[in-house]
């Protein structure tokens, strides 16, 4: 009987992270939710973690070492976004976004690598969640976009440096995904039907993304079916970036 895969998903208590955790669980994996807030799913093992704090990340990995001794998959999903015009953004706001989205990805990766180099690790894989906002731009998201571009660059270097140990690293760049955050954004408009139609029209596939779209892609990248893929950023946006804008004629 094959060994149960061990997976850490940061920010797994809600939204995309929760969906990613559920996808691995359906395959029989043991999933650890590394988050500040506990998940609603009690079947997840929860380890309170502030990924922007190195001591907290070290404590997370120490617990994993003591209980299991190895790690198969790390999904760096946790992230935050602050909507502020660039001119009005404070240095503290900028630093907070970078601390979670970039520094947090660095810290969890750094301290997970020894566990993933353990001989018991099976097909060790890191998947980082970047964003199409690291490739394009949305207004008021300067810090977020810069942080996600940094995550993509960090992904390339991780793949380059640790491929020699059999560790693959890729990134998934989501487009517009139906989450509680985006729902709150859309709910402020009185003509919701018109807004939905406008946003759906941005996507050639004719719909917005679901958290399961991202979860399925992450799962595939962590599977043996993608064994020759490393150092890549996979765009999951329903074709949005491929569509050139046209004037309304």
What would you say this structure looks like, in words?
It is a single chain. The chain is an alpha/beta fold. The protein has one domain: NAD(P)-binding Rossmann-like Domain (Rossmann fold, 3-Layer(aba) Sandwich), CATH 3.40.50.720. It contains seven helices and seven strands, in the order βαββαβαβαβαααβ. Strands 3-2-1-4-5-6-7 form a seven-stranded parallel β-sheet, with helices on both faces. Strand 5, helix 4 and strand 6 form a beta-alpha-beta unit. The protein is globular.
Question: Key features?
Answer:
single chain; alpha/beta; Rossmann fold; 7 helices; globular
Oligomeric state as shown: single chain
Proportion of β residues?
5-15%
By CATH reckoning, the class would read Alpha Beta
**Portion of residues in helices?**
40-55%
Number of strands: 7
Low-confidence stretches: none
Short note summarizing the structure:
By secondary structure, the chain is of the alpha/beta class. 41% of the residues lie in helices and 14% in strands.
């Amino acid at each position: 009987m094959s060994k149960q895969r061990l997976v850490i998903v940061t920010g797994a208590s809600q939204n995309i992270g929760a969906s990613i955790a559920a996808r691995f669980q359906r395959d029989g994996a043991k999933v650890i939710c590394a988050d500040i807030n506990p998940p609603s799913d009690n079947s997840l093992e929860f380890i309170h973690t502030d990924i922007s704090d190195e001591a907290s990340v070290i404590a997370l990995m120490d617990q994993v070492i003591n209980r299991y001794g190895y790690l198969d998959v790390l999904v760096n999903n946790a992230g935050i976004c602050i909507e502020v015009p660039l001119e009005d953004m404070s240095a503290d706001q900028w630093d907070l976004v970078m601390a979670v989205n970039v520094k947090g990805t660095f810290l969890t990766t750094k301290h997970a690598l020894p566990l993933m180099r353990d001989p018991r690790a099976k097909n060790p894989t890191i998947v980082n969640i970047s964003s199409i906002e690291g490739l394009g731009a949305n207004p008021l998201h300067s810090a977020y976009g810069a942080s996600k571009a940094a995550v993509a660059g960090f992904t390339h270097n991780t793949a380059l440096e640790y491929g020699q140990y059999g560790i693959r690293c890729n990134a998934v760049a989501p487009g517009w995904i139906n989450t509680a955050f985006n729902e709150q954004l859309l709910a402020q408009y009185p003509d919701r039907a018109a807004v939905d139609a406008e946003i759906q029209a941005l996507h050639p596939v004719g719909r917005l993304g679901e958290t399961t779209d991202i979860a399925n892609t992450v799962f595939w990248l962590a599977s043996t079916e993608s064994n020759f893929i490393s150092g890549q950023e996979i765009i999951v946006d329903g074709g949005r970036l491929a569509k050139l804008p046209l004037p309304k004629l």
